[in-house]
Amino acid sequence: MKTNSIKRQIFSLQLTICLSFFALTMPIPVLTSHFLNTHWHGINQHTLLLVSLGLYPIGGFISTPILGIISDKFGRRNTLITCLLLSFLAQLATAVAVKLSSIGMILILRFVAGAFEGNSAIAYASIADLFPSEQRKKYFGKINAAVTLGWIFGPVTGGLLTISWLHHYQYSFPFFVSALLHAIALGIIYRYFNETKKSIELKKEITEKLSLVNVILLNNRYLLKLILVGFLITLGVDSIYQFLPIFSADRYQLSTVEIGLVTSAISLSKVITGQILISNILTSLKETSIICICAVVVAATLFTIYFCHSLAVLYLCLFIIGACISMIVTHLTALQSSKFPDKHQGALMGFIMSLRIFGSGLLFFLYSLTAYCFSHNFRYLPLLFAAILTTSGALMLLCILSKKSPNRILI
To answer: Which residues contact 93 (CB under 8 A, 6 or more apart)?
Structure first.
C-alpha cells in the first residue's frame, strides 16, 4: 500500500474515532442533569441515572468480542460502516425518547447504542493489519489521542448544547447532534477508508483466543492473579472516573456545562500526563512503584474531596486524579503485557478490555442498587469504594510481584 494511501487510512480512522467519542461523551452531563432534575413518578433518580449509564458498557461488553470476530470474517470497513449506521439510528431514536421523557425507551436505546460503539476496537485491529508489531505503538498512540480529544471536548459541548434558548429541546438536542456526528463519521469511512483485513481462516482466530483463555484460567495461576488484581485496580479507577461528575453535580449543584467541565478536567490531565510525565520523566521508575504511589495519592485526594467543600479544591483534585489514573492504567497495561508472549498480545488486550468494560457496567448496577437502598448517603459511597479498591489492588499487586515470578510467560 502506498504511503499516501496509508496516511489517508490513518487520518480517516483518527477523525472517525474522534468524532465518535466526541458524540458518545456529549450525553454524559446531559443524562446526569436530566435524570437528577426530573421527577420520575417516585422512582429514585440516582438509580435510574446509574442504570441508564450502566446499560451502555454492558452493551459494549456483550458486543465487542462479537464485532471483533465479525470484522475478522467480513472486513473492518464493512463492520465500521454497519456500526456507525446503527449508532446514528440509536442516537436519533434516543433524542426522540429523551424529548418524550420515555424512561423505557431511553434505557433500551442506551444498551443498543453501547452495543454498536465498537469503533475503537476495530480501529486498533486496522492498525494491526497495516503495520508490523514494532511500528504499532506509534499508531495506537494516534488512535488514543483521538479518543482523548473526544473525551476532552465532548462533555463540555454536550453541556453547552443544553442552554436556555433551546428550552423545548434542552436535553434531547445533544443527541440529535450526536447522531449528526455519527453520520459524518460514516461518510468519512465510506469515502476514504479502504479494507485492511487480509483473508484468514476464522477457525484459526477462534482457536488462538480459546488457547489464551485456557492458559490464563487453567495453566497459569500467576498470570491469572496479575490480571484479576489489574481488574480490581481498574475497577477502582473507573469508579472515580464515572462517578465523580455525579458526586460533584450533587454536592455543588452544578449546571450541565459545569458537569461536563468536571469530566473534561480529568481527561485533559490524562493527556498532559501521558505526553509529559509518562513519556519523559517517569521512564526510570518501575511500573509497580508508580502504580502503588499513584494509588495512595488517589486515595488521599478522594478524602480531600470528601472533607473539603471548595469548588477550586475540587478542580485541583480532579487534575491530580486524572494524572494518577493515566499513570496507573498505562503502567498496569505495560506490566501485564511484559509478562506475556508477543504472538498473543492482541488476544490478551482484548481479554483485559472485555473485563474492564464488564466491570464498568457492573459498577453502575451495584451503585444503582446502593442508591436505592441508601439514597441519603449514596453520593459518598463510590468515592469510598474507589479508594479501597485502588489501594488494596495496588498492595495485592505488590505482594504478587514481590515473589519470584517468570520474566515472561511462555505458551
So the answer is: 105, 109
Residues 267-295: tens digit of each pLDDT = 788 777 665 655 455 555 677 888 888 88
State the cell numbers at 45. Answer: 433518580
The whole-angstrom separation of Cα 366 and Cα 384 is 14
For the record, the C-alpha cell of 325 comes out as: 489514573
CA distance 81 to 108: 22
Domain 1-200, CATH: 1.20.1250.20
**Class of domain 201-411 as given by CATH:** mainly alpha
Q: How many CB atoms lie within 10 A of CB 237?
A: 26
Are 176 and 95 in contact by the 8 Å Cβ rule? The answer is yes
Give the pTM. 0.71
Better-scored residue on pLDDT, 240 or 69: 240
Question: What is the distance between the alpha carbons of residues 114 and 93, in angstroms, rounded to a whole number?
Answer: 14
Q: Domain coordinates of the chain in residue numbers?
A: 1-200, 201-411
- How many C-beta neighbours within 10 Å does residue 381 have? 17
**341 grid coordinates:** 508472549
Question: Do 1-200 and 201-411 agree at the fold level?
Answer: yes
pLDDT above 90 as % of the chain? 6
